[in-house]
TrEMBL record:
This is Phytochrome. Residues 217-392 form the Phytochrome chromophore attachment site domain. It holds the Pfam family PAS_2. The lineage of its organism: Eukaryota, Viridiplantae, Streptophyta, Embryophyta, Tracheophyta. Homodimer. Belongs to the phytochrome family. Regulatory photoreceptor which exists in two forms that are reversibly interconvertible by light: the Pr form that absorbs maximally in the red region of the spectrum and the Pfr form that absorbs maximally in the far-red region. Photoconversion of Pr to Pfr induces an array of morphogenic responses, whereas reconversion of Pfr to Pr cancels the induction of those responses. Pfr controls the expression of a number of nuclear genes including those encoding the small subunit of ribulose-bisphosphate carboxylase, chlorophyll A/B binding protein, protochlorophyllide reductase, rRNA, etc. The keyword Transcription regulation applies. Residues 1-21 have a biased composition (Low complexity). Residues 618-688, 751-807 form the PAS domain.
């Protein structure tokens, strides 16, 4: 992009250039999208990206394709299938749109939940309260009353029909409330509140690492954040993707699992991430795609509705088909992307003067944290929320790095500006800053420079020839006659006719006009020379498929786009060039120009400026530079008198620039800071520059009544050509707001203590408790009310009972203090006796387990002896059955070490060994045969031979324990003479060439009225104090199934009941080994 420079500021020029780039890219995005949709297999990405360089900007307007493209991106009616979606009318709370999978996910009847006689139906007009239990439905309804409903996410709801929990993630769209529902899966991390808490702990650890980093290295910051996200999420690849000023992207930091091709250092064209997608990232800062190969789900809308529902804020929004193809080509099946949003840090030149300075800063998308996975992957919402918070903290530190980098660069430019100005005024000719050292190439980063002065040309380093420079000057006088300068990253794009003849080495140019005929030039080479391939290998002979959107092809396309572009010129560089232009204009005139070289040397010797004029000129230039800064900057001369006071300091203190100039700095600081500033000034004038010194400035004028301005300052000594210190520049950071916040906290804390401990009779009774219920506060009014002194109740347990009305609304509390009363002493004695009784029982259990092992050892000996007596095949099979039952008993005895085997968090372990399903089924059935014989019940196993002979990996003994428990309960509650049937179904899912996941389903069907409802409910209740033996065994078995990524359902039909057990196992060919 290019921009000529009239009287506008650098920030204004930057905004105009950015808007033009965004408009141009959005148009190209739309063209690419239309071409992709229409061309299918003939889509040529490289050819279309080339259009970005060849299409004139004036032709890149808002066409019909652009409008249609933006509407399609924002109004697409598809979601990903890992959840479902409802759109609710804000007034009636009824459904106005739903995803096709919502009825199945939210209203399917589960026989594990009893008493669901008339299940609700989901459709247009359904009241959402009928789908969920009261707490979740009420929470959803309350969300309508919040302006920012995202603060409530996620809302935990539970379906009435299935009892399944869901995360409800709510956002407000035009005219409705859109709710994404994601299943809460106990087998996935984090599923419970404890899991979510663990996610935040991990995020806190990552944030702590980021905050402990020393400033000054963006690379170290990015490497740290990708490492922490990699550890936190478990994806195969995590990248920090940075957007450059011309909107193209670069993989700035990366970490991958072994064996994955790295993308570190690769650059991609701006079209790889469309502007519409960037807009959506600003709105919805975390984006997850679970499986790019999964079929999207349609949204069904109310045809009578007048609104067009937008899914911009939905976590389930389906990705565009073009992006899915891109992911497929990268072998990235799943992804997680977090937006890194930073402040623009620009002064709004168009703002009104009376506009408040505390207005919200404009934001921009610095880049993305991108996670890729080579297989489907789902990350629950609590962990995604923790990642979003981590990205926000990262963005804050990116802002700090920007500020630090800007201060360092401005300081460097300020030094160089001072030295060049000193050289210029001593010699009174621009030749001194061309032929001397340093020269104008040291002012800003460039590859070459030139001066057209007095109809002569001087060239430095990589610069066009003399005739080419004259041609450029002629073009400037014709096309940019009214501008004082020009900056462009592409002379080709700026419209210079001779750009092609300059080649790749001269692409970017910055110009400062001294007069209409005298010009300073700075030149830059093409960007492609600075882009390095960071992958595993990149042989130029390798050919990419130009019709597929592969990352390596995108890199190739980028080289084609940028070979005629340079790095863009930054605002502070253009400010430095503009300042040099003003100095040259102020000190030189047409009369000083030589007509021949000997006369020039004579005039250089005659035009000597005295020291005072020189110092004033340098000071004037420093003031101009300081005024462009967004941080407080002030400067003093060798006597401590203010000679620099930028607009930021004037804004903070209320003291205008003309009022500050000439005053001594010590008269402007608070009395408490006089010695600090005096010492800092003394050391700086000696050449010792102190860093991060804190002092306070007085406030004046309209801000006279405000608190002092608190600054943290770095001192920078200003030197003349002879390296003598002639003044000090203070570059500061405003800490006033931070101090106000800390003071407010201190005042609140002090007010709190003053109120609590005030003996005034008007102060009401006040007491407090910590998170464990122990009394932590007790004021004088409480002592008067209760008769208990503070020392008597502090650190005693405080019992609080809620008082509720008939609607369940809390209307008050009853509070009790635990004191060592007789009743409490008696209760403690009872508790101690109970603990001693429990200890005796525990010792008895320990003895019994030890004693049981002895006869079990004898049984093992007998089995081994029988094996050597020439048993036939059937007899040997019975021995194996006994051996399996023995292993099961050992496993159950080992469980006695658990503190509470009914606790879901207990460490019931699972092994991963190979076993035959036949062995498990036979051993489990054998444990119920005696009970079956007593009731005349027949057990039939309708299991195919393929099932029985299937070798799988998993915990066969635990599976045997589960099956025997459910068989025993089924037999117990079957009528005399009944039957029990066992059937199965196996489904294989390939996850590699040599490994399959098996979804196993076992059905245990028995006649009669079935298992009583109270025992079935005990299978789902953890804290049932009246849990029966059967209920306890079913509860433990269900927990074991959950560890196997399975569950149990109970189906009750007329005269028949069925347990449906599901579990996940693994299988592999016999040749693959264990």
């Amino acid at each position: 992009m290019s921009s000529s420079r009239p009287a506008s500021s650098s920030s204004s020029r930057t905004r105009q250039s950015s808007r033009a780039r965004i408009l141009a890219q959005t148009t190209l995005d739309a063209e690419l999208n239309a071409e992709y949709e229409e061309s299918a297999d003939s889509f040529d990405y490289s050819k279309l990206v080339e259009a970005q360089r060849t299409t004139p900007l004036e032709q890149q307007g808002r066409s019909e394709k652009v409008i249609a493209y933006l509407q399609h991106i924002q109004r697409a009616k598809l979601i990903q299938p890992f959840g479902c979606l409802l759109a609710l009318d804000e007034k009636s709370f009824r459904v106005i749109a739903f995803s096709e999978n919502a009825p199945e996910m939210l209203t399917t009847v589960s026989h594990a939940v009893p008493n669901v006689d008339d299940p609700p139906k989901l459709g247009i007009g359904t009241n959402v309260r009928s789908l969920f239990t009261d707490p979740g439905a009420t929470a959803l309804q309350k969300a309508l009353g919040f302006a920012d409903v995202s603060l409530l996410n996620p809302i935990l709801v539970q379906c009435k029909t299935s009892g399944k929990p869901f995360y409800a993630i709510v956002h407000r769209a035009t005219g409705c409330l859109v709710v994404d529902f994601e299943p809460v899966k106990p087998t996935e991390f984090p599923a419970t509140a404890a899991g979510a808490l663990q996610s935040y702990k991990l995020a806190a650890k990552a944030i702590s690492k980021i905050q402990s980093l020393p400033g000054g290295s963006m690379e170290a910051l990015c490497n740290t954040v990708v490492k922490e996200v990699f550890d936190l999420t478990g994806y195969d690849r995590v990248m920090a993707y940075k957007f450059h000023e011309d909107e193209h992207g670069e993989v700035f930091a990366e970490i991958t699992k072994p064996g994955i091709e790295p993308y570190l250092g690769l650059h991609y064209p701006a079209t790889d991430i469309p502007q519409a997608a960037r807009f959506l990232f600003m709105k919805n800062k975390v984006r997850m795609i679970c499986d790019c190969r999964a079929r999207s789900v349609k949204i069904i809308e109310d045809e009578a509705a007048s609104i067009d529902i937008s899914l911009c804020g939905s976590t389930l929004r389906a990705p565009h088909s073009c992006h899915l193809q891109y992911m497929e080509n990268m072998n990235s099946i799943a992804s997680l992307v977090m937006a890194v949003v930073v402040n623009e840090n620009e002064e709004d030149d168009e703002a009104e003067p009376e506009q408040p300075s505390q207005q919200q800063k404009k934001k921009k998308l610095w880049g993305l944290i991108v996670c890729h996975h080579e297989s489907p992957r789902y990350v629950p919402f609590p962990l995604r929320y923790a990642c979003e918070f981590l990205a926000q903290v990262f963005a804050v530190h990116v802002n700090k790095e920007f500020e630090l980098e800007k201060q360092i660069q401005e300081k460097s430019i300020l030094r160089m500006q001072t030295m060049l100005s000193d050289m210029l005024f001593k010699e009174a000719s621009p030749l001194s800053i061309i032929s001397g050292s340093p020269n104008i190439m040291d002012l800003v980063r460039c590859d070459g420079a030139a001066l057209l002065y007095g109809d002569k040309v001087w060239r430095l380093s990589t610069a066009p020839t003399e005739s080419q420079i004259r041609d450029i000057a002629s073009w400037l006088s014709e096309v940019h006659r009214d501008s004082t300068g020009l900056s462009t990253d592409s002379l080709h794009d700026a419209g210079y006719p001779g750009a092609a003849s300059l080649g790749d080495m001269i692409c970017g140019m910055a110009v400062a006009k001294i007069t209409s005929k005298d010009i300073l030039f700075w030149f830059r080479s093409h960007t492609a020379a600075e882009v390095k391939w960071g992958g595993a290998k990149h042989d130029p002979s390798e050919k990419d498929d130009s019709r597929r959107m592969h990352p390596r092809l995108s890199f190739k396309a980028f080289l084609e786009v940028v070979k005629m572009k340079s790095l863009p010129w930054s605002d502070y560089e253009m400010d430095a060039i503009h300042s040099m232009q003003l100095i040259l204009r102020g000190t030189l005139s047409d009369a000083n120009k030589p007509t021949k070289e000997p006369g020039l040397d004579n005039q250089i010797g005659d035009l000597k400026i005295d020291g005072l004029a020189e110092l004033q000129a340098v000071t004037s230039e420093m003031v101009r530079l300081m005024e462009t800064a967004t941080v407080p900057i002030l400067a003093v001369d060798g006597n401590g008198l203010i000679n620099g006071w930028n607009q930021k300091v004037a804004e903070l203190t209320g003291l205008r620039v003309d009022e500050a100039i000439g005053r001594h700095i010590l008269t402007l600081v608070e009395d408490s800071s006089v010695q600090i500033v005096q010492r800092m000034l003394y050391l700086a004038l000696q050449g010792k520059e102190e860093k991060e010194v804190r002092f306070e400035l007085k406030t004046h004028g309209s801000k006279r009544d405000d608190d002092p301005v608190i600054l943290v300052v770095n001192a920078c000594a200003s030197r003349d050509l002879h390296d003598h210190v002639v003044g000090v520049c203070f570059v500061a950071q405003d800490m006033t707001v931070h101090k106000l916040v800390m003071d407010k906290f201190t005042r609140v804390e002090g007010d709190y203590k003053a109120i609590v401990h005030n003996p005034n009779p008007l102060i009401p009774p006040i007491f407090g408790a910590d998170q464990f219920g122990w009394c932590s506060e007790w004021n004088a009014a409480m002592t008067k009310l209760t008769g208990w002194h503070r020392d008597e109740v502090i650190d005693k347990m405080l019992l609080v009972n809620r008082k509720e009305n008939e609607d369940g609304v809390i209307t008050g509390v009853f509070c009790f203090i635990h004191v060592p009363s007789d009743e409490l002493q008696h209760a403690l004695h009872v508790q101690q006796a109970s603990e001693q009784t429990a200890l005796r029982k525990l010792k008895a259990f320990s003895y019994m387990r030890h004693a049981i092992n002895k006869p079990l050892s004898g049984m093992v000996y007998c089995r081994e002896a029988l094996k050597s007596t020439g048993l036939n095949e059937e007899q040997m099979r019975q021995v194996h059955v006994a051996e399996g039952c023995h292993h099961q008993l050992n496993k159950i005895l080992a469980d006695l070490d658990q503190d509470n085997i009914t606790d879901k968090t207990s460490c019931l372990d699972l092994e991963m060994v190979e076993f035959l399903l036949q062995d498990v089924v036979v051993a489990a059935v054998s444990q119920s045969l005696i009970a079956c014989q007593g009731k005349g019940i027949r057990v039939s196993c309708n299991l195919p031979e393929k099932f029985m002979k299937q070798k799988v990996y998993g915990d066969g003994i635990r599976l045997q324990q589960i099956l025997s428990d459910f068989l025993f309960v089924s037999v117990k509650f079957s009528p005399v003479g009944g039957s029990v049937e066992i059937s199965s179904k196996l489904t294989k899912n390939s996850i590699g060439e040599k490994l399959h996941l098996i979804d196993m389903e076992l059905r245990i069907k028995h006649h009669g009225s079935g298992v009583p409802a109270d025992i079935l409910s005990q299978m789902y209740e953890e804290d049932n104090k009246e849990q029966s033996e059967e209920g306890l065994s079913l509860f433990v078995s269900r927990n074991l199934l959950k560890l196997m990524n399975g569950d149990v359902l109970h189906l009750r039909e007329a005269g028949m009941s069925t347990f449906i057990l599901t579990a996940e196992l693994a299988s592999a060919p016999a040749s693959s080994g264990h």
